[in-house]
Every structure is written in structure tokens, then in C-alpha cells.
Amino acid sequence: MTNDKSFSKKDTSNKTIETSEGIENREILELSTPQLIIELVEYVPNSILRKTILKKATGSVTVCSFDTDETLAERVSPFATFIQIIEGKAEIIIAKKSTLLHCGESIIIPAHSCHTVKADGRFKMLQTVIKSGYDM
User: Mean per-residue pLDDT for 78-90?
Assistant: First the structure.
């Protein structure tokens, strides 16, 4: 499957690059076909690359790559977020508690929790956000 990749700067303070694919409820992956998720994003020097692979009203699935020493700005999400490291290792900080995750490990960030993600070398992760009106 070949895609025309279109990139734009989203957040220059964090050097985050987000692809235009996967927006408005479009999937960039061919349905019912096996995919190698780790190959969907490359490393970009001094940047965080995010590619939304599925986005619906009920949530989204995004694959991300972080270059060495990059940090996702601290944030609070109204929704629960599942993070799985698919290459390398990363520091996940939830409510000021730090956890080092290695390839294959995962963590759930509770809704309404202050959190950040820091690169401990280059790494890739899969992020799944579940939106629900019942998370209060």
C-alpha cells in the first residue's frame, strides 16, 4: 500500500510532526490485512512523529516515534489512554510517578491524570485512546 505522505508541524515547541492521514474517520491501513505497525513511522531527527492510523468518535489509535531526548509536553486527557512500547524504551510519568517501559510492555494512563512521555533513546509506541461519556 503506497500513501502520499504529507507532513506538517503541529507543535514547534516539542517538534511534533503529525501526518495528515487518518483524519476525519479515515483509516490509513487496509482493513482485514495484516500490518507491521513498527514500520508505519520512521525516526525523524530531533522530533516526535505521530501517525493516526484509526480515528473514530469513540477513540483513536496512533503510532508514534520519538527521537533521543524528546519529551511529550505534560498534559491531562479526559480519556483513558493505553500505551504500548513497540521498539526501544521510554519513561512514562503519571501523576509524578515515573515508570520505565521496555519493548513489549504497556501501561494505562487513567483519565484526568497529569502525564508525560520521555524518550530514553529512540523508541516507538502505540497509543490507544478510549473515549467514553462514563469516565468522570
Answer: 97
Q: Where are the domains of the chain?
A: 7-28+35-130
- pLDDT (tens digit, 9 = 90+) per residue, 100-125? 999 999 999 999 999 999 998 999 99
CATH 2.60.120.10 fits 7-28+35-130, yes or no: yes
Identify which of 93, 91, 40 has the alpha carbon closest to the alpha carbon of residue 62.
Answer: 40
Do residues 106 and 34 lie in contact, with contact meaning Cβ atoms separated by under 8 Å? no
For residue 22, the tally of other CB atoms under 10 A from its CB is: 21
Residues 41 and 44: their CA atoms lie apart, in Å, by 9
CB proximity list for 64: less than 8 A, separation 6 or greater: 41, 48, 49, 50, 51, 124, 125, 126, 127
